[in-house]
Design a protein that fits this description.
14 helices; alpha/beta; 2 domains; 450 residues; 29% helix
Amino acid sequence: MISLFQPRSTGQAFPDSVTVPASSKYKKPGILRMFFLGANYRTEWSVPVRMPVFNLVKDPRGFKIQELGGGQQTKSLDLVDRSGREWSLRSVDKDVEKALPKGLKSKLVRNLVQDLISASYPYGGLSVPALSQATNVYEGDQQLYYVPNDPAFGQYQTVMANTVCLLVLKQPAGIDLEKSEEILPKLESGNYVVDQEALLRARLLDWVMGDWDRHEDQWRWTTRDSAGLKWFYPMPRDRDQVFFYSDGLLVQMLTRFFMPHVNGFDKRAHSIRRLGYKTRAFDLGFLNGLDRGKWVRVIREFQQNLNDTVIERALRQQPREIYEYSGRLITAKLKSRRDQLMSDALNYYEYLAKQVSIFASFRNDQVMIDQQGDQTIITIYNHAAKPVYHRAFDPKETKMVLVDGLEGNDRFLIEEPPEGIKLLLYGGKGEDVYPLQVYNAVRIKDEEEE
Protein backbone atom coordinates (compact mmCIF):
# COMPACT_ATOMS: atom_id res chain seq x y z
CA MET A 1 0.00 0.00 0.00
CA ILE A 2 1.41 3.36 -1.00
CA SER A 3 1.42 5.84 1.86
CA LEU A 4 2.95 8.92 0.24
CA PHE A 5 2.96 11.62 2.88
CA GLN A 6 4.88 14.70 3.97
CA PRO A 7 6.45 14.12 7.41
CA ARG A 8 5.19 16.52 10.06
CA SER A 9 7.44 18.27 12.52
CA THR A 10 7.41 16.51 15.87
CA GLY A 11 9.30 19.10 17.84
CA GLN A 12 11.76 16.41 18.84
CA ALA A 13 15.47 17.30 18.69
CA PHE A 14 18.07 14.80 17.48
CA PRO A 15 21.86 15.11 17.48
CA ASP A 16 23.58 15.74 14.15
CA SER A 17 25.63 12.55 14.51
CA VAL A 18 26.06 9.47 16.69
CA THR A 19 28.76 6.84 17.16
CA VAL A 20 27.34 3.32 16.92
CA PRO A 21 28.30 -0.07 15.40
CA ALA A 22 26.58 -1.45 12.33
CA SER A 23 25.45 -4.36 14.54
CA SER A 24 26.33 -5.93 17.85
CA LYS A 25 25.10 -9.41 16.89
CA TYR A 26 28.37 -10.81 15.56
CA LYS A 27 31.03 -9.93 18.11
CA LYS A 28 32.80 -12.31 20.51
CA PRO A 29 31.90 -15.68 18.96
CA GLY A 30 32.84 -18.91 20.74
CA ILE A 31 35.75 -21.03 19.55
CA LEU A 32 33.54 -23.51 17.66
CA ARG A 33 31.54 -20.79 15.99
CA MET A 34 34.71 -19.01 14.96
CA PHE A 35 36.12 -22.26 13.54
CA PHE A 36 33.04 -23.33 11.57
CA LEU A 37 31.51 -19.95 10.64
CA GLY A 38 34.67 -17.85 10.47
CA ALA A 39 36.08 -14.57 11.75
CA ASN A 40 34.61 -12.91 8.65
CA TYR A 41 33.98 -9.15 9.12
CA ARG A 42 32.96 -9.40 12.78
CA THR A 43 35.26 -6.56 13.80
CA GLU A 44 33.92 -4.27 11.08
CA TRP A 45 30.35 -4.96 12.17
CA SER A 46 31.15 -4.36 15.85
CA VAL A 47 33.38 -1.26 15.78
CA PRO A 48 31.49 1.95 16.67
CA VAL A 49 31.41 4.36 13.73
CA ARG A 50 30.57 8.04 13.75
CA MET A 51 27.74 8.70 11.28
CA PRO A 52 25.17 11.45 10.60
CA VAL A 53 21.63 11.13 11.94
CA PHE A 54 18.86 10.99 9.34
CA ASN A 55 16.34 13.73 10.14
CA LEU A 56 13.28 13.15 7.99
CA VAL A 57 11.74 16.54 8.78
CA LYS A 58 14.83 18.75 8.49
CA ASP A 59 16.61 17.09 5.57
CA PRO A 60 16.91 19.79 2.85
CA ARG A 61 15.97 17.33 0.11
CA GLY A 62 12.37 17.32 1.35
CA PHE A 63 11.71 13.59 1.50
CA LYS A 64 8.28 12.02 1.41
CA ILE A 65 7.71 8.37 2.26
CA GLN A 66 6.24 6.32 -0.57
CA GLU A 67 5.95 2.82 0.85
CA LEU A 68 7.65 0.05 2.75
CA GLY A 69 10.19 -1.70 0.53
CA GLY A 70 12.92 -4.27 0.87
CA GLY A 71 12.95 -8.03 0.68
CA GLN A 72 12.55 -10.67 3.33
CA GLN A 73 15.75 -9.78 5.18
CA THR A 74 16.19 -6.02 4.82
CA LYS A 75 14.23 -3.20 6.42
CA SER A 76 13.63 -0.59 3.76
CA LEU A 77 11.59 2.51 3.01
CA ASP A 78 11.12 3.98 -0.46
CA LEU A 79 11.39 7.77 -0.46
CA VAL A 80 10.99 10.53 -3.04
CA ASP A 81 12.58 13.98 -2.73
CA ARG A 82 11.16 17.30 -3.89
CA SER A 83 13.01 17.09 -7.23
CA GLY A 84 11.39 13.74 -8.06
CA ARG A 85 14.37 11.51 -7.36
CA GLU A 86 13.56 8.15 -5.80
CA TRP A 87 15.61 6.79 -2.90
CA SER A 88 15.71 3.71 -0.70
CA LEU A 89 16.54 3.89 3.00
CA ARG A 90 17.86 0.37 3.65
CA SER A 91 19.07 -1.25 6.85
CA VAL A 92 22.69 -2.40 6.77
CA ASP A 93 22.02 -5.40 9.00
CA LYS A 94 19.59 -8.15 8.03
CA ASP A 95 17.12 -10.42 9.78
CA VAL A 96 17.11 -13.88 8.20
CA GLU A 97 14.10 -15.35 10.04
CA LYS A 98 11.48 -14.53 7.39
CA ALA A 99 13.69 -15.91 4.63
CA LEU A 100 14.06 -19.34 6.22
CA PRO A 101 11.83 -22.22 5.06
CA LYS A 102 9.18 -23.30 7.57
CA GLY A 103 11.02 -26.49 8.48
CA LEU A 104 14.26 -24.65 9.26
CA LYS A 105 13.12 -22.01 11.71
CA SER A 106 14.48 -23.60 14.86
CA LYS A 107 16.48 -21.32 17.13
CA LEU A 108 19.73 -23.17 16.35
CA VAL A 109 19.34 -22.89 12.57
CA ARG A 110 18.16 -19.30 12.78
CA ASN A 111 21.18 -18.31 14.87
CA LEU A 112 23.62 -20.09 12.56
CA VAL A 113 22.20 -18.50 9.40
CA GLN A 114 21.99 -15.09 11.06
CA ASP A 115 25.64 -15.36 12.05
CA LEU A 116 26.62 -15.86 8.40
CA ILE A 117 25.62 -12.25 7.75
CA SER A 118 28.98 -11.42 9.35
CA ALA A 119 30.61 -12.55 6.07
CA SER A 120 29.01 -9.58 4.29
CA TYR A 121 30.94 -6.32 4.46
CA PRO A 122 28.63 -3.76 6.12
CA TYR A 123 29.98 -0.64 4.40
CA GLY A 124 30.85 -1.97 0.95
CA GLY A 125 28.16 0.06 -0.79
CA LEU A 126 29.90 3.31 0.14
CA SER A 127 32.81 2.50 -2.19
CA VAL A 128 30.68 1.38 -5.15
CA PRO A 129 29.77 4.83 -6.62
CA ALA A 130 33.44 5.87 -7.02
CA LEU A 131 34.36 2.54 -8.66
CA SER A 132 31.30 2.73 -10.92
CA GLN A 133 31.83 6.29 -12.04
CA ALA A 134 35.44 5.60 -13.01
CA THR A 135 34.51 2.55 -15.11
CA ASN A 136 31.50 4.14 -16.84
CA VAL A 137 28.94 2.05 -14.98
CA TYR A 138 25.90 3.96 -13.75
CA GLU A 139 25.03 3.40 -10.07
CA GLY A 140 23.16 5.57 -7.61
CA ASP A 141 24.88 7.41 -4.79
CA GLN A 142 24.97 5.77 -1.33
CA GLN A 143 25.18 7.55 2.03
CA LEU A 144 25.46 6.18 5.56
CA TYR A 145 22.96 7.29 8.24
CA TYR A 146 21.66 6.40 11.66
CA VAL A 147 17.83 6.44 11.80
CA PRO A 148 16.57 7.47 15.26
CA ASN A 149 13.29 6.60 16.93
CA ASP A 150 11.52 9.38 15.06
CA PRO A 151 7.71 9.89 15.25
CA ALA A 152 7.90 11.66 11.87
CA PHE A 153 8.09 8.19 10.27
CA GLY A 154 4.47 7.62 11.30
CA GLN A 155 3.39 4.00 10.90
CA TYR A 156 6.97 3.03 10.03
CA GLN A 157 8.53 4.49 13.19
CA THR A 158 9.00 1.17 14.97
CA VAL A 159 10.20 -0.54 11.77
CA MET A 160 13.07 1.84 11.16
CA ALA A 161 13.86 3.08 14.69
CA ASN A 162 17.47 2.94 15.90
CA THR A 163 18.78 1.41 12.67
CA VAL A 164 22.02 1.93 10.75
CA CYS A 165 21.01 2.46 7.12
CA LEU A 166 22.29 3.27 3.66
CA LEU A 167 20.37 5.92 1.73
CA VAL A 168 20.60 4.77 -1.90
CA LEU A 169 19.59 6.74 -4.98
CA LYS A 170 17.33 4.37 -6.92
CA GLN A 171 16.12 6.57 -9.75
CA PRO A 172 17.23 10.03 -10.87
CA ALA A 173 14.57 12.61 -11.68
CA GLY A 174 13.12 12.46 -15.19
CA ILE A 175 14.55 9.01 -16.03
CA ASP A 176 12.30 6.00 -16.45
CA LEU A 177 13.72 2.68 -15.33
CA GLU A 178 12.37 -0.76 -16.20
CA LYS A 179 12.85 -4.22 -14.71
CA SER A 180 14.56 -7.00 -16.66
CA GLU A 181 11.27 -8.84 -17.10
CA GLU A 182 9.70 -5.69 -18.53
CA ILE A 183 12.26 -5.15 -21.29
CA LEU A 184 11.94 -8.65 -22.81
CA PRO A 185 8.72 -7.95 -24.77
CA LYS A 186 10.29 -4.76 -26.12
CA LEU A 187 13.40 -6.62 -27.25
CA GLU A 188 11.13 -9.07 -29.07
CA SER A 189 9.48 -6.15 -30.92
CA GLY A 190 12.62 -5.64 -33.01
CA ASN A 191 12.96 -1.94 -32.15
CA TYR A 192 15.11 -2.32 -29.03
CA VAL A 193 18.58 -3.71 -28.37
CA VAL A 194 20.74 -4.07 -25.26
CA ASP A 195 23.97 -2.09 -25.01
CA GLN A 196 26.00 -5.22 -24.40
CA GLU A 197 29.32 -3.45 -23.99
CA ALA A 198 27.80 -1.35 -21.19
CA LEU A 199 26.47 -4.51 -19.58
CA LEU A 200 29.88 -6.18 -19.86
CA ARG A 201 31.48 -3.23 -18.05
CA ALA A 202 28.95 -3.63 -15.27
CA ARG A 203 29.58 -7.37 -15.04
CA LEU A 204 33.35 -6.78 -14.92
CA LEU A 205 32.77 -4.52 -11.94
CA ASP A 206 30.65 -7.25 -10.32
CA TRP A 207 33.49 -9.74 -10.71
CA VAL A 208 36.19 -7.39 -9.47
CA MET A 209 34.14 -6.61 -6.33
CA GLY A 210 33.18 -10.26 -5.82
CA ASP A 211 29.45 -9.46 -5.97
CA TRP A 212 27.79 -12.84 -6.54
CA ASP A 213 24.16 -11.79 -6.02
CA ARG A 214 23.45 -10.36 -9.48
CA HIS A 215 20.28 -12.13 -10.63
CA GLU A 216 17.99 -10.42 -13.15
CA ASP A 217 15.95 -8.54 -10.52
CA GLN A 218 19.13 -6.75 -9.39
CA TRP A 219 19.13 -4.67 -12.58
CA ARG A 220 17.13 -1.77 -13.94
CA TRP A 221 17.29 -0.44 -17.48
CA THR A 222 17.01 2.99 -19.05
CA THR A 223 16.82 3.78 -22.78
CA ARG A 224 18.57 6.05 -25.24
CA ASP A 225 18.03 6.54 -28.96
CA SER A 226 20.75 5.92 -31.53
CA ALA A 227 20.90 4.84 -35.19
CA GLY A 228 17.15 4.44 -35.47
CA LEU A 229 16.95 2.06 -32.50
CA LYS A 230 16.28 2.29 -28.79
CA TRP A 231 19.13 0.99 -26.64
CA PHE A 232 18.68 -0.43 -23.17
CA TYR A 233 21.41 0.71 -20.79
CA PRO A 234 21.90 -1.23 -17.52
CA MET A 235 21.79 0.19 -14.00
CA PRO A 236 22.93 -2.27 -11.29
CA ARG A 237 21.36 -2.08 -7.85
CA ASP A 238 21.47 -3.77 -4.42
CA ARG A 239 25.15 -4.12 -3.51
CA ASP A 240 24.72 -6.06 -0.25
CA GLN A 241 27.25 -8.77 -1.19
CA VAL A 242 30.18 -6.60 -2.30
CA PHE A 243 33.48 -7.92 -0.81
CA PHE A 244 31.73 -10.98 0.71
CA TYR A 245 34.28 -13.19 2.49
CA SER A 246 34.33 -15.98 5.05
CA ASP A 247 37.16 -18.14 6.37
CA GLY A 248 34.84 -20.54 8.24
CA LEU A 249 35.13 -24.27 7.53
CA LEU A 250 31.37 -24.76 7.19
CA VAL A 251 31.06 -21.82 4.81
CA GLN A 252 33.95 -23.10 2.69
CA MET A 253 32.26 -26.51 2.42
CA LEU A 254 28.87 -24.99 1.54
CA THR A 255 30.34 -22.79 -1.16
CA ARG A 256 32.33 -25.63 -2.68
CA PHE A 257 29.54 -28.21 -2.88
CA PHE A 258 26.17 -26.43 -2.63
CA MET A 259 26.56 -22.70 -3.32
CA PRO A 260 29.33 -22.33 -5.92
CA HIS A 261 28.29 -18.75 -6.66
CA VAL A 262 29.22 -17.62 -3.13
CA ASN A 263 32.81 -17.15 -4.21
CA GLY A 264 34.84 -15.46 -1.46
CA PHE A 265 36.50 -12.10 -2.08
CA ASP A 266 40.14 -13.15 -2.29
CA LYS A 267 43.06 -11.66 -4.20
CA ARG A 268 42.01 -13.75 -7.17
CA ALA A 269 38.56 -14.65 -8.43
CA HIS A 270 38.96 -18.42 -8.20
CA SER A 271 36.37 -18.95 -10.93
CA ILE A 272 34.20 -16.30 -12.55
CA ARG A 273 32.11 -19.15 -13.91
CA ARG A 274 31.32 -20.13 -10.31
CA LEU A 275 30.85 -16.52 -9.29
CA GLY A 276 28.37 -16.07 -12.15
CA TYR A 277 26.50 -19.32 -11.50
CA LYS A 278 23.26 -17.60 -10.43
CA THR A 279 23.36 -15.30 -13.46
CA ARG A 280 24.53 -17.66 -16.19
CA ALA A 281 21.18 -17.53 -18.04
CA PHE A 282 21.24 -13.72 -17.78
CA ASP A 283 24.78 -13.56 -19.21
CA LEU A 284 24.06 -16.10 -21.96
CA GLY A 285 21.07 -14.04 -23.08
CA PHE A 286 22.39 -10.50 -22.75
CA LEU A 287 26.09 -10.93 -23.66
CA ASN A 288 25.56 -13.05 -26.79
CA GLY A 289 26.58 -10.36 -29.30
CA LEU A 290 30.18 -9.74 -28.22
CA ASP A 291 33.08 -11.63 -29.74
CA ARG A 292 36.51 -12.11 -28.16
CA GLY A 293 37.94 -8.94 -29.70
CA LYS A 294 35.21 -6.79 -28.11
CA TRP A 295 35.69 -8.48 -24.75
CA VAL A 296 39.44 -7.82 -24.88
CA ARG A 297 38.91 -4.14 -25.77
CA VAL A 298 36.30 -3.57 -23.04
CA ILE A 299 38.38 -5.38 -20.40
CA ARG A 300 41.52 -3.41 -21.29
CA GLU A 301 39.65 -0.08 -21.08
CA PHE A 302 38.08 -1.17 -17.80
CA GLN A 303 41.47 -2.04 -16.28
CA GLN A 304 42.93 1.29 -17.38
CA ASN A 305 40.02 3.25 -15.90
CA LEU A 306 40.10 1.32 -12.62
CA ASN A 307 43.57 2.58 -11.76
CA ASP A 308 45.24 2.51 -8.35
CA THR A 309 44.20 6.07 -7.52
CA VAL A 310 40.52 5.28 -8.21
CA ILE A 311 40.60 2.18 -6.00
CA GLU A 312 42.38 3.95 -3.15
CA ARG A 313 39.97 6.90 -3.30
CA ALA A 314 36.96 4.55 -3.35
CA LEU A 315 38.09 2.72 -0.22
CA ARG A 316 38.64 6.04 1.52
CA GLN A 317 34.85 6.46 1.32
CA GLN A 318 34.65 3.89 4.11
CA PRO A 319 34.23 5.21 7.67
CA ARG A 320 37.61 6.21 9.05
CA GLU A 321 37.24 3.80 11.95
CA ILE A 322 36.63 0.85 9.59
CA TYR A 323 39.34 1.68 7.06
CA GLU A 324 41.97 1.09 9.71
CA TYR A 325 40.88 -2.56 9.97
CA SER A 326 40.15 -3.63 6.38
CA GLY A 327 40.63 -0.74 3.96
CA ARG A 328 44.20 -1.60 2.96
CA LEU A 329 43.48 -5.31 2.56
CA ILE A 330 40.41 -4.72 0.39
CA THR A 331 42.39 -2.19 -1.64
CA ALA A 332 45.09 -4.79 -2.29
CA LYS A 333 42.51 -7.41 -3.24
CA LEU A 334 40.78 -5.06 -5.71
CA LYS A 335 44.08 -4.21 -7.40
CA SER A 336 45.00 -7.89 -7.67
CA ARG A 337 41.62 -8.90 -9.08
CA ARG A 338 41.80 -6.04 -11.59
CA ASP A 339 45.27 -7.06 -12.74
CA GLN A 340 44.16 -10.66 -13.35
CA LEU A 341 40.82 -9.72 -14.90
CA MET A 342 41.84 -10.26 -18.52
CA SER A 343 42.58 -13.97 -18.15
CA ASP A 344 39.81 -14.61 -15.62
CA ALA A 345 37.09 -12.88 -17.66
CA LEU A 346 38.20 -14.45 -20.95
CA ASN A 347 37.88 -17.88 -19.36
CA TYR A 348 34.26 -16.99 -18.67
CA TYR A 349 33.87 -15.69 -22.22
CA GLU A 350 35.02 -19.06 -23.56
CA TYR A 351 32.34 -20.77 -21.46
CA LEU A 352 29.63 -18.44 -22.83
CA ALA A 353 30.92 -18.80 -26.41
CA LYS A 354 30.65 -22.59 -26.66
CA GLN A 355 26.91 -22.60 -27.40
CA VAL A 356 25.19 -19.36 -28.35
CA SER A 357 21.49 -18.67 -28.76
CA ILE A 358 20.36 -15.65 -30.80
CA PHE A 359 16.78 -14.42 -30.78
CA ALA A 360 15.28 -12.19 -33.44
CA SER A 361 11.82 -10.60 -33.02
CA PHE A 362 8.14 -11.34 -33.49
CA ARG A 363 8.18 -9.32 -36.72
CA ASN A 364 9.75 -9.92 -40.13
CA ASP A 365 13.52 -10.29 -39.77
CA GLN A 366 16.30 -11.13 -42.18
CA VAL A 367 19.15 -13.37 -41.04
CA MET A 368 22.36 -13.17 -43.08
CA ILE A 369 24.94 -15.96 -42.66
CA ASP A 370 28.30 -15.67 -44.36
CA GLN A 371 31.72 -17.30 -44.16
CA GLN A 372 34.78 -15.06 -44.12
CA GLY A 373 37.98 -17.03 -43.80
CA ASP A 374 37.53 -19.36 -40.85
CA GLN A 375 34.82 -17.22 -39.22
CA THR A 376 31.05 -17.48 -39.57
CA ILE A 377 29.40 -14.05 -39.67
CA ILE A 378 25.76 -13.74 -38.54
CA THR A 379 23.88 -10.47 -39.01
CA ILE A 380 20.20 -9.87 -38.27
CA TYR A 381 18.22 -7.00 -39.77
CA ASN A 382 14.89 -6.04 -38.22
CA HIS A 383 11.62 -5.25 -40.00
CA ALA A 384 12.93 -1.76 -40.82
CA ALA A 385 16.20 -3.13 -42.29
CA LYS A 386 18.19 -1.87 -39.29
CA PRO A 387 21.04 -4.15 -38.12
CA VAL A 388 20.17 -5.35 -34.62
CA TYR A 389 22.76 -8.13 -34.29
CA HIS A 390 26.21 -8.75 -35.74
CA ARG A 391 28.89 -11.15 -34.58
CA ALA A 392 31.75 -13.17 -36.00
CA PHE A 393 31.99 -16.74 -34.64
CA ASP A 394 35.23 -18.68 -34.44
CA PRO A 395 34.87 -22.49 -34.65
CA LYS A 396 37.75 -22.83 -32.19
CA GLU A 397 35.47 -21.25 -29.57
CA THR A 398 31.90 -21.91 -30.70
CA LYS A 399 30.52 -25.34 -31.49
CA MET A 400 26.84 -24.51 -31.99
CA VAL A 401 24.68 -21.47 -32.71
CA LEU A 402 20.89 -21.45 -32.51
CA VAL A 403 19.15 -18.68 -34.46
CA ASP A 404 15.54 -18.36 -33.35
CA GLY A 405 13.36 -16.12 -35.48
CA LEU A 406 10.54 -16.33 -32.92
CA GLU A 407 7.59 -15.31 -35.09
CA GLY A 408 6.99 -13.24 -38.21
CA ASN A 409 7.90 -14.02 -41.81
CA ASP A 410 11.67 -14.40 -41.56
CA ARG A 411 14.23 -14.81 -44.34
CA PHE A 412 17.38 -16.89 -43.81
CA LEU A 413 20.10 -16.12 -46.36
CA ILE A 414 23.35 -18.10 -46.53
CA GLU A 415 25.97 -16.37 -48.67
CA GLU A 416 28.71 -18.92 -48.04
CA PRO A 417 28.34 -22.27 -46.26
CA PRO A 418 29.44 -22.09 -42.58
CA GLU A 419 32.37 -24.28 -41.61
CA GLY A 420 33.10 -25.93 -38.30
CA ILE A 421 30.04 -24.59 -36.45
CA LYS A 422 26.71 -26.38 -36.20
CA LEU A 423 23.87 -23.98 -37.03
CA LEU A 424 20.30 -24.54 -35.90
CA LEU A 425 17.79 -22.35 -37.75
CA TYR A 426 14.28 -21.91 -36.39
CA GLY A 427 11.87 -19.49 -37.97
CA GLY A 428 8.93 -20.04 -35.65
CA LYS A 429 5.32 -20.01 -36.82
CA GLY A 430 5.56 -17.46 -39.62
CA GLU A 431 5.88 -18.01 -43.36
CA ASP A 432 9.65 -18.24 -43.38
CA VAL A 433 12.00 -18.38 -46.34
CA TYR A 434 15.09 -20.62 -46.28
CA PRO A 435 17.76 -21.22 -48.93
CA LEU A 436 16.94 -23.99 -51.40
CA GLN A 437 19.85 -25.84 -49.87
CA VAL A 438 20.60 -25.29 -46.18
CA TYR A 439 24.38 -25.64 -46.15
CA ASN A 440 25.93 -27.20 -43.06
CA ALA A 441 22.93 -26.12 -40.99
CA VAL A 442 19.90 -27.80 -39.50
CA ARG A 443 16.49 -26.30 -40.06
CA ILE A 444 14.26 -26.88 -37.04
CA LYS A 445 10.67 -27.23 -38.23
CA ASP A 446 7.74 -25.90 -36.27
CA GLU A 447 5.26 -28.47 -35.00
CA GLU A 448 2.61 -27.10 -37.36
CA GLU A 449 4.86 -27.94 -40.33
CA GLU A 450 5.21 -31.59 -39.37
